[in-house]
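Let's do one together. I've listed all components of the complex below, 914 residues spread over two lines.
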Amino acid sequence: MNNHTRLSVTRRELLGSSGALVVSAAVPWLSGSAQAQGSNMKKPALAPDELDSWVAIQPDGQVIAYYGKVDLGQGLEVAIAQIVAEELDVAFDKVEIIMGDTATSLNQGGASSALGIQAGAKPLRNAAAEARRLLVDMASAKLGLAPGKLGVSDGVIFALDDVGKRVSYAELIGGQYFNTKVEWNKKNGNQMNVKGKAKPKLPAQYTLVGQPVSRRDVAWKVFGTGRYVSDITVPGMLHARVIRTPRAGSIAEAVDASSIQSIPGARVIREKNFLAVVADKEWDAVRAARLLKVTWSEAKNLFPTWEKVHDHIRSAPTLKRDDSEKTGDVAAAFQSAARVVQAEYEWPFQSHASMGPACAIVDARADHATLWTGSQKPHYARDGVAKQLGLAAEKVQGIWFIGPGSYGRNDAGDAALDAALLSKLTGRPVRVQGMRHDATAWDPKAPASVHRARAALDASGKVIGYEFTSRGFSRASIRSNESDPRDSLSGMEIGLPPNIGVGFGTPEESYGFNNKLLAWEVIPALLDGASPLRTSHLRDPVGLQIHFASEQFIDELAVATGADPVAFRLNYLTAARDQAVVKAAAEKSGWKARSSARRDLSADLLKGRGIAYAQRGGTILAVVAEIEVERKTGRIWGRKFTVAHDCGLVVNPEGLRHTIEGGLVQSLSRSLFEEVHFDKNSVTSVDWLSYPILDMKDAPESIDVVLINHPEVAPTGAGEATCRVVPAAVANAFFDATGVRLRRAPMTPERVMAALASAS
Amino acid sequence: MATTQFTVDGKPARVDGDPQMPLLYALRGDLKMINPKFGCGLAQCGACTVHINGEAVRSCVLPVSAVQGQQITTLAGLGTPDKPHPLQTAFVQEQVPQCGYCINGWVMTAAAFLKKNPTATDAQVRDALAGLKCRCGTHVSIMRAIKRAQAQMV
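Okay, and this is what the predicted structure of the assembly comes out as:
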């Protein structure tokens, strides 16, 4: 075992104890080190415009950077440390990242839209550069040399012409504070940024940014020496299970508390339509939740059933339509068309189905409270808990520990507010954890949708008009963070008015079609209230839905015009970087041009390859899927994938590759297997049997990743972009293999068999 | 109420309470052994896997009374940073876990399997690990890590 691994475990053990290190870091050291110019012994209050809120130098020269987002296991912590170390000119191992504790980090928006580096690193880069500038000024005064005559190496400032003249960061300010203001852009959340007088380095000067550096949160996870949020215990805490209605919209008319009287300490907690059981032992809470007799009001039959949801989407009233993305005269183009190609695609509701049900603990006191949460937006969760308790936000500390998977607004947001309400109602610290059905049936869902595409072709086959319309449930009928109890199940159950969000999205691409319209339409939620089919963000919100359709339609256009799918894309893409990713993916995968499907239906194993491309928030990528279709079973195996990925400057290629791989496989799972089933009253996808995801036997054999590095372009996100190109790449490969289109996801064996039967 | 006695990672353990309580709650709640995780409570995901006398078992559905006198090993007992199991070394080297909540299940299941089948082919490994869940999609790196560990183990 190398030192790095051992070190990681030790660090986690330190950090794992709910910020013990954080507290000591905030205490001034009376070490007798040089009283540095401009520094002092008292840490200013946490505020964006205080340099000390971003970066601190410890007495031993270690650097702490305070990050207001969280790393969900994709190496953000390492990337941020690389950036801070780079600007400060210290070794990577000297930088510690503290994140996710509202007492020590600012609200940078939490994990959000793959912005961890794109937005989240900006203030830290600037703050670290400013800290270096101030330290060099201090050294200049101390050594009596102009700043221009000084160099910095691993936290030691030295005279360029006499390296014997030197002073370390630790000697200058270790354990003390800068007490220096930085300029804050007055924004909170993702867009928060600050700058000082210093100019950050130019990419050409980077020595650490761009290097592959291993993660520091791997070893503790593999050796089991750290803690997840569900491993936290608080003295005196109760265990709770929340009981949600078996039928959406129906409420508990009667609760028979005597049905759990045989379980020691178990009792019912009820506030309006919010219902839970608590007990001193977790197993007793689980048993009580199972045994409790509740009489529910009659079924309301609010849902159309999963089989009919797309018919419902087509026929429901339109709540809002947006057709602002328009160029040229689309109607005229279609009127003059020699030929019109059109198709319609369907995507189901999908669940976060995180690896474990969410857990949260709240210790609510009369005038303050503490929240332990796995929410990927702990500052917003803190805000929501404060509102739930009627406390000012600053009276509540939110402490993040990694949860059992987090890919957006999953059940973690509800767990936090459930725990807050229960702690308030019981006067004790309360730990809430869901059961499996809470995580799969009751998490906010990714919306189901229908996508209509049509293109006008002239006599030569040129695309002269293009129209793409997505229509579905809102991308977020509850907001993507839990800062308002109205967006939580418990909030709605105690009667707060729902906080309805309406929006969807459009394809992100650079196809230069003249006369182009990209539109969306949102229909009303099935139930404005505590619904298991309320919608919110799931990794790459609406990206899979939209690009499953739009990138499959591009393929359909290629076929309709007798063009190879790669050549067709290159012909119409207008941006050079977009063309580059398509070319790179094709070349690396050994793409052989074909203008029609391979369509060999005679063999038992049909093989095909397909490509899809998209942009996402500045990142550009293409993926080639090589699949096998078992003709007798309908099973699709996504055997090999080739990804060409351009997110500007690559900060850490190792972390980036792993992030791309994970996103790809998760999206493959959603493409092939995942569909929330529901009857007229409830979600019937409640566990891993009724909501299957990708199994090891279905995992790809290989994933080739081509990283296209553009150091001159500021880094953009990587956590979500890959997700959106996988579904269409697989569907396009299926067409190549069979000559048949799969326009409805997921592409299950049953749908494959039906499609093949209809083709033969 | 009943008392069950067994060993966990070589140390004697004793649990009093409902004999039907799943072993997972005894380990996590009574004994504070937090490596096995609650993922589903239905033996469908593997996050709760421990070894009982060397066999991989899903502790979330096994009544605690069934392990009277048995030897239980958790992830922490499989290996430590100073004395790692080859799979743990390989999982670190391949940087496998993302959220990592499932990792206990993969490492414990693979360790029991490879002990009996150190030269298993990729297809056999995939079969042996069928049914385990990973929501972050780290499957490809899991296979890389297992291959790496196999090279160390034979």
